[in-house]
Amino acid sequence: DTEVTQTPKHLVMGMTNKKSLKCEQHMGHRAMYWYKQKAKKPPELMFVYSYEKLSINESVPSRFSPECPNSSLLNLHLHALQPEDSALYLCASSPTPRGRYNEQFFGPGTRLTVL
Amino acid sequence: DAKTTQPPSMDCAEGRAANLPCNHSTISGNEYVYWYRQIHSQGPQYIIHGLKNNETNEMASLIITEDRKSSTLILPHATLRDTAVYYCIVRLFQGGKLIFGQGTELSVKP
Questions:
Q1: Which pLDDT tens digits describe chain B residue by residue (110 residues)?
Q2: Parallel, antiparallel, or unpaired for β A87-94 and A73-79?
Q3: Which residue, A31, A39, A52, B97, is most buried by CB atoms nearer than 10 A?
Q4: How far is A2 from chain B (nearest CA, A)?
Q5: Where are the beta strands (DSSP E) in B6-69?
Q6: Which residues of B touch A99 (CB under 8 A)?
């Protein structure tokens, strides 16, 4: 299995809702990432998990809460989002967080709309 | 991480080679050049990376100048499915973030 899967593909939520995005990989990768991509813009890194521990938080607002329950799974919990948080949320994984063979493999993304 | 500069858009005829340039004049000795592409509404896809030697794989070739201040990604026989945004990224060998620049939107035309 050489895929990164993300669910759901699309999500519409109100500003008072709580929802979660899910990302899964079965490649044995030990680093996982969350990116945010607004329309017509490049992806921007949000969080990095290395060996199931949060290693990088790019000053992301606390209404986004990441979680890595095990080495194959990465969640992004959403609460009290704003309409400007509407974007494509991309998950990625890499064999290791460092070194030569750390190419990142991306999932197809979850398109989030906040009303 | 060093910044990169790419042309915002390029066209290429189907079947011809697509040569995508990238400037990274502030690159340091321990930074690699990576290329990714993003086809519309999909996640970015890794293409190739290199340090100072030219590299080739089944998707593309990467030519890095001797002073390492610029590089060119070559798709030898472009197809319509190669239409995408191509990102050139410089990152540390020891890890470091993938910081995407604005990229080049490549349109392959029949």
A1: 568 999 999 999 999 999 999 999 988 888 889 999 999 879 999 999 999 989 999 999 999 999 999 999 999 999 999 999 999 998 876 666 788 889 999 999 99
A2: unpaired
A3: A31
A4: 13
A5: 9-13, 18-23, 31-38, 45-50, 55-56, 61-64
A6: 93-95
